[in-house]
Amino acid sequence: MKLFFCFAAILFIPVISFEKRNDDEACTRTKDSLVQVLGNKSLGFILGGSENDREVLRIWKLPKGQCATISIIKDRSIDEDIRFFAAEVMLENAEEIPADIDKADLGKLYAQALSKKKMDLNYLGMNSKDDLRYTGRHLLRIGKPAIPALATLLDNEEQLWYCCGSKASEKANALWEYRIKDVAAFFILKIRNKPFTWSHNPNKRDRMIKRLKRGLHGN
Fold first, then answer.
1. pTM (predicted TM-score)
2. pLDDT given for residue 175 in this prediction
3. For 142-178, how does the pLDDT look when each residue is reduced to its tens digit (9 = 90+)?
């Protein structure tokens, strides 16, 4: 009987190896295709569409879509913009961030995308201190490992905008004058989960950012 089970196990091992190899090859093919797709798209395309028929959902549901998306995020040889878009797909769909994903690296991807203006304020929220939208919620999910990367943006004066030509967005852009450093400060404060007052006045925000920087250096 023992000999039979040993023989059966020997026969079964090549089957497992063959199936794993096929799975790996399928994941790689999907990954290669997805890199091409994401390299030619915008954040608006990925997150846009009707609530139940959005590209961010379709990508995740592709055969091997989850495996390919996570593999793209982890592959540092791939363009960082593509990895950021893949992170948006994962964080919109996955219940938990996989344990083998480096959250500090995720934070760097989001900080780099922010510095390169790969997102407009519509995807972040920030109409009030409790207003979070797609990308804003995703960034908050990364948590404290994202703070060091965001902190590097606290001197960045470049302005970000609400899109796209409505009276409300034009008014917000003119009055609030949100800059990259404001976005970084907002999400650092949200991640730290301590009470704070958020102002639409840029001068008041500047004073708040100075205090925040002192606090970060003190810690």
1. 0.85
2. 79
3. 999 999 999 999 999 999 888 876 777 777 878 789 9
Q: Does pLDDT of 31 surpass 90?
A: yes
Which residues, 6 or more positions from 28, have their beta carbon under 8 angstroms from its beta carbon? 68, 71
- Where do the structural domains in the chain lie, given as residue ranges? 19-101, 120-219
Q: How far is residue 172 from each of residues 43, 125, 133, 162, 201, measured CA to CA in Å?
A: 21, 12, 16, 7, 11
Instruction: Quick: pLDDT tens for 32-49.
Output: 999 998 998 888 888 876
- From CA 128, how far away is CA 42, in angstroms rounded? 26
Contact 125, 148 (CB under 8 A): no
Angle, CA 128 vertex, CA 103 and CA 107 arms, to 5° = 10
Residue 191 phi, psi (nearest 5):
-65, -40
Q: Hey, is 54 helix, strand or coil? A: strand
Distances (CA, A) of 6 to 3, 11, 13, 17, 131: 5, 9, 11, 17, 61
Contact 198, 209 (CB under 8 A): no
196, 145 contact by CB (below 8 A): no
CA atoms within 13 A on the CB side of 182: 26
Tens-place pLDDT, residues 58-74: 899 998 999 999 999 99
Show the beta-strand stretches assigned E in 10-106: 49-50, 53-54
Q: Which DSSP state fits 154? A: T
